[in-house]
Amino acid sequence: MASTTDLKIDFTTFYNVINNELKSTPTTRTATNPSTLEPLPPVPVSTQADVDAAVAAAAAAFPAWSKTPVEERVALINKFADGIQENFNEFTGLLAAEGKPPQAAGFEVQFTIMHLKGTTTLRLEEEVVEENDEKIVKVRYTPLGVGVGIIPWNFPMLLGAGKLGPALLAGNTFIWKPSPYTPNTALKLGELAAKIFPPGVVQVLSGEEDLGPMFTSHPDVRKISFTGSTATGKKVMAACASTLKRVTLELGGNDAAIVCDDVDLDKVVPKVALTAFNNGGQVCVDIKRLFVHENIYDAFLAKLVETVKSFKWGGSDDTEGAFFPPVQNSMQFEKVKSLFAAIEKEEWKPATGGVVEASEAGGSKKGYYFQPTIIDNPPEQSRIVQEEPFGPILPILKWSGSEEEVIRRANNTDMGLGASVWSNDLERAERMARQLEAGTVWINNHQDLSPLVPFGGHKFSGMGHDWGLVGLKGWCNLQTLSRPKAV
User: Fold this and answer.
1) What is the CATH number of the domain that holds 193?
2) Strand, coil or helix: 96
3) What pTM was estimated for this model as a whole?
4) Nearest Cα to 391, choosing from 34, 93, 31, 92?
5) What's the whole-number mean pLDDT along residues 41-53?
6) In which domain, by residue range, is 247 found?
7) 437 has catalytic annotation
8) How many domains does the chain have?
9) What percent of the chain has pLDDT over 70?
10) DSSP β-bridge partners for residue 248
């Protein structure tokens, strides 16, 4: 087994990791640094043959890995986390080039380490569900086999680790499929894993948009864990149906936050601002619809604008403490641009922002930048309220009257990932929170996430859960074992 001093890796060339071997492909592609529009180092474009080889290696490794004592699996997962720490600066720099200012990139790397280590504290215990003089009946959890994580571009390290850790802890082997927009960090994580885990236990393949369907249709893959858009999630679910793969879908969100009129603005506004514009609005559980009581609306809006204007935005070369990034890729840039174009057309009123700072053709800076924008009380049926923008543009809406009415408005969406209620009256806040249709509801907070807490959505925001003991069980088959007490 590798010692800690053996865990340094080279960050200049990038390969697939199949059966602990670094593999090149005849064709390569490059992702783009969204803050400079410069190409990143080339990465492999995997073929069906690469997928077949990885799945075969994972299937071959599964029997021994699934029988490895859990404490040995825990030790290796923790060593993997230690290896990320050993290469912290390099991962931070590479993640920054994939789309974040260094400060934000470092935060994701640190959270990835914490998430892996937190996951290893979970344990699957057999549960006695019936016992009498004649028999004992237990429920136990057994690993599925080969699992595949399809990872999005907004948190390419953290969200992948959030699937890898539980999959391995439960005894599965794991193949990591990164987004074509952010493949580089994942490939280096695979190279690090090859120094730690037995062959076939952790593999990483990069490619084009056709790579995901190769995994979803493969007969020897037992589970797909997907994080991404609702539209793509539906396709993943349909593709898995013919082989009855287990599927976990963590999909889009259009999170509502309800602010009551008794809050302390100095405490609440900074938290709301951060969790609305975190990662440039490119977080599935960012606040996307902000309902503020009319009694404090004007004061809240003024303070929110002041706070957002103080935020520092920057890219991979920023050294001035910026935390908020550009839009990550050209596809998403065009989607967000269409919302900005609708500001004038639909006569929305920006309280701040409303400007596209740059484009591929140039502008005040290179990269996919927008001014952070707050839309002042748009109509309820506006695109900016009904659609998830996944960019730095936020509608703030007035509410008055009954709690029931604002709860109805907050629930008036096909999405149901996260939501929050903000009030100094905790009993009132919990009463309201219990009526919101979302997988996670926070009181006086938003985006308070932990590897020990299950995370998933209602309605079109997904099926199943990642993280926590619930997420860990999602990487298992449930088996009922009934045994007589005497022959």
Assistant:
1) 3.40.605.10
2) helix
3) 0.95
4) 34
5) 98
6) 4-251+461-481
7) no
8) 2
9) 97
10) 225
